[in-house]
Structures are given as structure tokens and as C-alpha cells.
Specification:
This protein has 439 residues and is an alpha/beta fold. The protein folds into three domains: 114 residues, Probable tRNA modification gtpase trme, domain 1 (Gyrase A, domain 2); 136 residues, Four Helix Bundle (Hemerythrin (Met), subunit A) (Up-down Bundle), CATH 1.20.120; 148 residues, P-loop containing nucleotide triphosphate hydrolases (Rossmann fold). It is built from 15 helices and twelve strands. The strands form two sheets. Strands 3-4-5-2-1-6 form a six-stranded mixed beta sheet, covered by helices on one side. Strand 1 and strand 2 form a beta hairpin.
């Protein structure tokens, strides 16, 4: 792709709040003249230069706005592929506002969310999957999320899908040869090899899809729901894991009526802990609604933490629930009375809490651990690959060469939507609208 020649835009690339430096980015046709108007001459490309930034109005004395480090990135060697610049300003609000006003007066406008990265996509500097990786990198809370997002932003996932697209393109060329030259006595090995390649591609896509959503779970974070009968210490456990008093704790059964959500990090994975109402039969309308919501959160959870102070866990729990027997400091022979596989703890005294935290961290890592190859990270990717694999399966069932060729074209279009090669206009606002203004 070539530079689009769009009007200049600007935005802060650094966060709000008091700081020493604020980085203001500028990109688009006319960036060079705007930079000259601000600081007199253009700096050497890609070299930081200390310049005075001036507001010059007709019939008025020039006004010095700031002394800033200025960087000039002529097209196409810039993030967006357009003429671009960075102004490293002093971060006072008055300085930022004054420079922004000067840029507007010189013909630039404030950028919309994701507009810098959208222009980079339009100019062929990156594809949609890489752009989504940059968004995920900005939002990464943990080291594991950072590694996954950085791999996607660096093109590991794109290269996998482009490799599939290249193989499909070759297969389609062979299929077209079988259609266009039926009388050329092409050897039967051509069609046999074609079918074998289509089967291999279909199997590779299915294997990629069969990952239990690990990449998507790491990207968005996990949900661990704490359930159990009333007054077994669920809220106390939530507070202990959150390391703060997030939920009200009382000896009165039924204190928790609604779900309480707390974000923590377990095993380098973001986890939302949900404390729920005690599970029991009740005629209290509000408490009954809390129980209904608790059961809903059980169904949605990646892991259920079932808490009890008796010898048996709560009933009707999904397979794989982590059983926790609390209040062992109040029970005799607690170690022998715990259900098989349960973790015995005393939240009040801290007994067993290190082992519980380790078990929860292990569960979080197991639910998000990637296998060989880059992981799927978004539902959009999954849907496109499922569609492409489905068309390949249909192609393998087709006896008519023309129908098989059409299925291969549809499979290629589905893959093309992943990286933005075809049919992407309806996706762009959704993808780039998730970005912060300065990206």
C-alpha cells in the first residue's frame, strides 16, 4: 500500500496526570510545513533536536510556547507510513493546551481513537492482527499478557495465517488448472496431491482451534467464583485473596446478597474473583435472587472455589471445582475430616493460605498455558478460522471441480478477513475504536 495523503492529526501519546514530559504525536500530509511553522526548520530525520516552539499569528509578535525535543519522521519510515513528528513537551496543562491550539491554527485536528494505528494499517505498515496485538500490549496487566500481545504485534500469528493463505492460493491454482484444462490429461497425482494438501490444511486449522480458548482467556482474564453455604467464610476468603477488606464479613448468615467482584493476579494471570451469596433454600426474595445469581456465576466461571466448613462440599458443582475447607482452627481432627482433594485452611489464622494461593495460581496457569504455536486471542479470529476450515471440509466432499474451487475461494476470503486483505471496512471501526486516542 502507499501513503494515503490524509490531513494531519495530533494527540497525546502519554497518559493524563502530572508528569515531567508529555509526548504529542503528529501525522499526515502537511506535517512538515506545520513543524517548520512551529520551530523554524525541520530537524534531521529520526534525530531528537531541542527546539523552541512558537505560535506565530499575522500582525502579532511570536509567542514562545515551550522548549521541547522534536523528532521528524518523513514518510514512509514512520509508524503510520505518513510524514510524522513527535513533540516531547513539558507536561503542564497550559503548555499542552497552547501547543494544541497552535496545531489547530496550522491545519491539524485532534485524532480519533485508534486513528494513528488505522492509518498504519491503511498504509500497509501492519495488518489487522498486528494492530490488535498493539491494542492488547497497551492493555496488558501481567508479564504473560505482555508476552502474548508482543508476539501478536510482532507478527507471529499473522505469519501463521499468511502461510495458510499461501498454501490455499497454491491449491486454488492447481484446482483452476484441473478446471481449465480438463482435456490435457493431467496426471491423477495432481488431484490426489491437491486433496491431501486440503486435508492437511483443514487439520491444521482444527488443531489450532482446539485450544480450549487459552489465548482468549489470558487476554481477557479468568473468572474464579467462590461458592458455598452461608457463613462458611466465603467473604473472608475473598478479602484474604484480595489483601483488602472488599466484602462485608459478618457472623450473620446471608450477609452477602449480590455478587462482589475483585480483580487480582494469580500465576501471572489476571483473575476476577467473585464472592456470591450463600447457597441454601430461602423464602427471602432478595436472598433468593442472590442465590440465583450465584448459580449463574458458577456456570460462567473458569474455576469454581467451593468453600465449606463441613465434611462434604456443596452439591451440584461442576467437574473440576477446587474444594476448600475453611475454619479448620475450630474443628477437631480437621485434616481427617476434609473431603478427598480438599484444601484445609483457616482464613482467620492464615493456616493453609499459601498452599491455596499456589493451587489457584497453578489452576490459572493451566487454563491459559499456550501449546506449540501462537495462540488464538480473539473471537473474531476463531470465527474466521472455523469458517475457513468449514469451507475446506466442504471442498473435500465436492466431486465437481467448479464447486470445489468455489469453496476454496470462500476459504481464502475468510482467511483474508483475519489480516484485513479483503472485506474489512465493516471491521475497522470495531477494531480501532478500542484504542486510546494517542494510538
Amino acid at each position: 500500500m502507499t501513503q494515503t495523503g490524509q490531513a494531519p492529526i495530533f494527540a497525546l501519546a502519554t497518559g493524563a496526570g502530572r508528569a515531567a514530559i508529555a509526548v504529542l504525536r503528529l501525522s499526515g500530509t502537511g506535517t512538515g510545513p506545520i513543524l517548520r511553522a512551529l520551530c523554524g526548520t525541520l530537524p534531521e530525520p529520526r534525530q531528537a533536536s531541542l527546539r523552541g516552539l512558537w505560535r506565530r499569528a499575522a500582525g502579532a509578535e511570536p509567542v514562545l510556547l515551550d522548549r521541547a525535543l522534536v523528532l521528524w519522521f518523513p514518510a514512509p519510515r514512520s509508524y503510520t507510513g505518513e510524514d510524522s513528528a513527535e513533540l516531547h513537551l513539558h507536561a503542564g496543562p497550559a503548555v499542552i493546551a497552547g501547543v494544541a491550539d497552535a496545531l489547530v491554527a496550522l491545519g491539524a485536528r485532534p485524532a480519533e481513537p485508534g486513528e494513528f494505528t488505522r492509518r498504519a494499517f491503511a498504509n500497509g505498515r501492519l495488518d489487522l492482527i498486528e494492530a490488535e496485538g498493539i491494542a492488547d500490549l497497551i492493555d496488558a496487566e501481567t508479564e504473560a499478557q505482555r508476552r502474548q500481545a508482543l508476539g501478536q504485534a510482532d507478527g507471529t500469528l499473522s505469519r501463521l495465517y499468511e502461510g495458510w493463505a499461501d498454501r490455499l492460493r497454491t491449491a486454488l491454482a492447481h484446482q483452476e488448472a484441473l478446471i481449465d484444462f480438463p482435456d490435457e490429461d493431467l496426471p491423477p497425482e495432481v488431484e490426489s496431491a491437491l486433496l491431501a494438501e486440503l486435508a492437511a490444511l483443514r487439520d491444521a486449522m482444527r488443531a489450532h482451534l482446539d485450544d480450549a480458548g487459552r489465548g482468549e482467556k489470558l487476554r481477557r482474564g479468568l473468572v474464579f467464583t467462590i461458592v458455598g453455604p452461608p457463613n462458611v467464610g466465603k467473604s473472608s476468603l475473598l478479602n484474604a485473596l484480595a489483601e483488602r477488606d472488599a466484602a462485608i464479613v459478618s457472623s450473620i448468615a446471608g450477609t452477602t446478597r449480590d455478587a462482589i467482584e475483585i480483580r487480582v493476579v494469580l500465576g501471572d494471570v489476571p483473575v476476577t474473583l467473585i464472592d456470591t451469596a450463600g447457597l441454601r433454600e430461602t423464602e427471602d426474595e432478595i436472598e433468593a435472587e442472590g442465590v440465583r445469581r450465584a448459580l449463574f456465576h458458577v456456570k460462567q466461571a473458569d474455576c469454581v472455589i467451593a468453600v465449606t466448613d463441613g465434611t462434604a462440599p456443596p452439591s451440584d458443582l461442576p467437574p473440576g471445582a477446587l474444594l476448600v475447607r475453611n475454619k479448620i482452627d475450630l474443628a477437631e481432627h480437621a485434616r481427617h475430616q476434609s473431603p478427598e482433594g480438599a484444601l484445609a485452611v483457616s482464613v482467620r489464622q492464615g493456616t493453609g493460605m499459601d498452599a491455596l494461593r499456589a493451587a489457584l495460581a497453578d489452576r490459572a496457569r493451566a487454563l491459559t498455558a499456550s501449546r506449540a504455536g501462537p495462540p488464538l486471542t480473539r473471537a473474531r479470529h476463531r470465527a474466521a478460522i472455523e469458517e475457513s476450515a468449514g469451507h475446506l471440509a466442504h471442498a473435500l466432499d465436492m466431486d465437481w471441480p467448479e464447486m470445489r474451487g468455489e469453496e476454496l475461494r470462500l476459504a481464502m476470503r475468510a482467511l483474508g478477513r483475519l489480516t484485513g486483505r479483503v472485506d474489512v471496512e465493516d471491521l475497522l471501526d470495531t477494531v480501532f475504536g478500542q484504542f486510546c486516542i494517542g494510538k
